[in-house]
Amino acid sequence: MTDPVYPTIADCVGQTPLVRLQRMLEIDNGSQVLLKLEGNNPAGSVKDRPALSMIQQAQARGDISPGDTLIEATSGNTGIALAMAAAIMGYRMILIMPDNATMERRWSMEAYGAELILVSKEEGMEGARDLALRMESDGKGVVLNQFGNLDNPEAHYQGTGPEIWQQTHGRVTHFVSSMGTTGTIMGTSRYLKEQNPDIQIIGLQPSDGAAIPGIRRWPQEYLPTIFDSQRVDTVKDISQDLAENTMRELARREGIFCGVSSGGAVAAAIDIARSNPGATVVAIVCDRGDRYLSSGVFATS
Question: Please, which pLDDT band fits residue 117 given cuts at 50, 70 and 90?
């Protein structure tokens, strides 16, 4: 008898559940909303997929070696995922983020051994990205650059897209994803459109004045270079109130504990299901709600 081969934590990234809404989809038109629970990844978000991919592929190309210093600007989920991946593979990780990120996000990164550099809320992600590039030019490490690194969307082309196609038995008609770095929607769209060009891809951005963690309306000069507008059929604006209210409803009525951008994605998916009888709408629930508790968004009073 041969000895069993047990998985490592890296082997547990991906193959997340796809579950249907039960109580919040109050329509009877043959449509359904399915949620891809990316918070079930080991570090708790959809970003586990590209984080591991970017480090693994850079190492395979010989661009980096264990022991090297990696640098990345992040608003939270990518940083946590990269901190985990760096711990798995033996890299020093420096993460740069705005100082208005929740404490849960900071603590999670530090728990994995990452070093944090904070920029002001006013500098935001643009300032964090600029600082990362300056540090790289000063020889302080290698920037993985999730915003321009093709290994980011490739992780979703290889993983998220095929999983959704298989889990829906090819019945998916609409795919909904919030857009930040845009890796999730780029890679998943590419795969799903190859299987069925009629699948509609819906990307979400915050409405004017909204500050939804993880999704952005980028200034043109900071627009991720991995983004290709032709891979998105429709871009919808999501308000802060709708995203937060839906997030709270998901926890209280469906038992699905997620973050604000996921609430926005589910709100859009429900609207699409109502307007398209017989649709099978898949939305990305990109992370877990526990990393937002200190912000007060789940408070009942």
Answer: very high
Return d(Cα 106, Cα 114) in angstroms, integer.
9
Confidence grade of residue 3 (pLDDT, cut at 50, 70, 90):
confident
Span 146-159, average pLDDT: 97
For the chain, what is the mean pLDDT? 94
Domain count within the chain: 2
Give me the pLDDT at residue 294, please. Answer: 84
Find the catalytic residue in 45, 177, 261, 295. 261
- Alpha-carbon torsion (146, 75, 184, 10), positive or negative: positive
Is 148 within the bounds of a domain? no
What 3-state class would DSSP assign to 259? coil
What is the span of the domain harbouring residue 85?
Answer: 47-143
Active-site residue among 47, 53, 75, 295? Answer: 47
Nearest to 141 by CA among 87, 93, 98: 93
Known binding residues: 77, 180-184, 261
Residue 236 a catalytic site member: no
Residue 209 CA: distances (Å) to CA of 216, 217, 237, 238: 11, 10, 11, 10
Region 237-262 average pLDDT: 95
Q: Please give the average per-residue pLDDT across 22-41, as a whole number.
A: 94
261 flagged as catalytic: yes
In a domain, 255, yes or no: yes
pLDDT of residue 301 exceeding 60 = no
- Looking at the structure, tell me whether residues 133 and 174 fall in a common domain: no
Binding site for pyridoxal 5'-phosphate: residue ranges?
77, 180-184, 261
Helix (H, G, I), strand (E, B) or coil at 119: strand
Query: For the residues 129-158, what does the mean pLDDT come to?
Result: 96
Tell me 148's DSSP state.
T
Which of 80, 41, 24, 40 has the alpha carbon at shortest distance from 263?
A: 24
The single-letter DSSP state of residue 237 is E
